[in-house]
Amino acid sequence: MFNFIKKIANGIEIHTIRTKLIISFLIIGLLPILLFGFLSFNVYSGAINDRINNYSQEMVNRMERDLEDYITEVERFLSKEQDFYINQFIKLTQANDFRNSRKYAFRIWEDFNNVKQLRPGLEDVAITFQDGRRISSYGTYNIEIDTFKEALYAAESDEIFFTQPYINYFQEEVVTVARYYYPEIAEENVLISADIDLDVLADLTDFNLGEKSYFLIADQNGDIIYHPEKARIGERSFYYSDGFPDRKVTLEGEQYLLTSTYSEVTGWYIISMASADEVEAELNYITNLTVYMTIIVLILIILLTLYLSSSLSKPIQKLQELTHRASENDLSVKIEISGDDEIAELGQSFNKMIRRINKLMEQNVREQKLLRQLEMESLDNQIKPHFIYNTLDLIIGLLENKDFDRATHMVEALGKFFRLSLSHGKEMVLIRNEIKHVKNYLFIQQFRHGEEYEYIIDIEAPEIMDKHIPKLILQPIVENSIYHGLLPADKKGLIIIKGLRENKNIYFKIVDNGVGIAPKKVEEINKILKGELKIDDQQKYFGLRNVNQRLKLMYGGSSGLQVESIENEKTMVTIRIDQRGGK
């Protein structure tokens, strides 16, 4: 082998040391890398499969523990011993003594609400009578008792029942855990149940196995309880075969490594579906890495040979020194340019970059100060003293009239309103919390104005509920709709709040059927919002301008507000949030 290489070398004329160095470094550098790549690929291919299987099993076991811990906590509440307030309420309700049962109902509501607050993901806690009457953490209402009972199926315990996922009375997708409660002093038993939001199962299975890989949960019959694709919830799993044995399966042309575990507490299977393509892609990574390393070594060899020139060493060392100082936040550095070669151009680009960084930092400081100022002004503008005083006067009036039920709802709504307004000092909040904040505000305002208007909140794209937006974006617009649109109108009012998503944009549309706005005024407002028209009175259209400017600062110029109106018919304010421009 050596003699063969020597003959080839003798047959090739090499006139320069640079060429000899390049050839020598190529041979010395490439051979070890190729050998290492071949050996590592074979070793790593087996290790990757073992690691994926072990990791998947570890994840499903962990999910099983977390799921059982959560369900056990719920079962512990449902399996409580005899409760005096519940027993008294059942007895008085069955005797149709609704007047005396109210004080027990209040205590039950309070207990159920406390349980719901302490356990994230509990949508409702309820007692259901045999005729379908129900008292829950939301109040009293009726359900189809036969349909509800048919949905229940027993797990390993005969006392606890589960349901398939379904849409509950409040249009939330839930799984219900229930058991029979046998009061000591009542004539008939009742069902005590807890509705668990499917988002809890989504959180429990929120582990990253890869872009195509996922986790799902199925019951002992193979029916899917949770799946990342909501359309498949409730279907019979394709891979069910007297359970879910670990194996390699094919679904829609894709191969998956199936790993599962069974929960004795819930009677559910937790299943990991690891994409075989992604496992193989990780093996391909080693092959690509070897190729890239070879190319890099080749480039380094050439660069090292060229670097022998002393004429390049000094400018490069100087540039290295200044770059290091810049990385240590010394942005006052500047390269003295001499000559017009590549190093000189690099120095010019470096100086230009430093100047640009300084400008951007100054601009960022100014924008952050303005953003904080606008947010504080927004908070001061939204939480107005007269709104607080009027609401408190209304609560006092309800208490004096002994209307404790409505007063309680008002206090709860007011507390939630301020809690969500403050949001623990955070600048960004979940859209679901912003929606809750608006609901509390509308509830209080509707209460104050004698239900002169109604409202509808329609979120067409539920996935946006877990996106973050700046707080207090919707409430100022809704307030304008009430005071400038509905209250001056001599008719039954209606406010519609819609949320939707198009590509990377999130839209909110606030529509009211109030007095509307004159066309010239609509044109003026839109020009102000676009920055085409300046105003002297800073209080004019303050709410609209505040929200509009905060959105543009946070998400860029394409985000903001637009107003449309038909006089004496309706007004619509569209909020556009372009997430691609978010800072």
What does this structure look like?
The chain is α+β, with helices and mostly antiparallel strands and 583 residues long. The protein folds into 3 domains: 16-312, Beta-Lactamase; 331-379; 385-578, Histidine kinase-like ATPase, C-terminal domain (Heat Shock Protein 90), CATH 3.30.565. The protein is built from 15 helices and 20 strands. The strands form 4 sheets. Strands 1, 2, 3, 4, 5, 6, 7 and 8 form an 8-stranded antiparallel beta sheet that branches. The protein has a 5-stranded antiparallel beta sheet with strand order 10-9-13-12-11. Strand 2 and strand 3 (139-142) form a beta hairpin. Helix 3 crosses helix 4 and helix 9 runs antiparallel to helix 15. It is flat. This is Two-component system, sensor histidine kinase YesM.
Keywords:
alpha+beta; Beta-Lactamase; eight-stranded antiparallel sheet; five-stranded antiparallel sheet; 15 helices; 51% helix
